[in-house]
Amino acid sequence: MKDKILMIVFVLVLGTILTTALVAVNGYTKPIIDRHAEIKLKSNILSALQIPFTLDTIDDVFDQSITEKSAGERTYYEATDGTLALPYEGSGLWGPIIGIIAMNSDLSQITGITIMQQEETPGLGSRIAEREYLDTYIGKEFAPELEMLPPGKGKGSNQVDGISGATMSSKAFVKILNDEFNVYDSLIGGK
Question: Where are the domains of the chain?
Fold first, then answer.
């Protein structure tokens, strides 16, 4: 009986020590993690809007160049030149795709795009996050909506090329952009 009581006391003491250690580590690392998330968001907004910055100047550049706005339950960002940065999020083939799409002030044309997070197949679907692929969206219009075509066929103002071997990821990405654009257009289209 005495051994069982000692074992229970030992487990309680050890559990208390480990819980205290975890709470202390969480308290120490939370501000660091939050700061990294803030830098990631700011850098993606500035990159989508094609506003130059360095990690040393990111806060000053962001504060001088960007205004945070809200419409409905959505937050978006407006640059001093009127260009808008619209956060988007949706389901890709294997997980969420999250990023920022920049549009001109009347929401008629894509001026920049970034992906902050994606979980598509490495080497195939993950190619949607490559700068070379994302740059093919610049200048495209959601009129009536983005349309994905086979590689090399996306010549129209609303047509984009898919990625060979990653058709499902490309389709999912275009669907996310179309769905999110429709929400923003209904909320801020007339500003």
Answer: 68-188
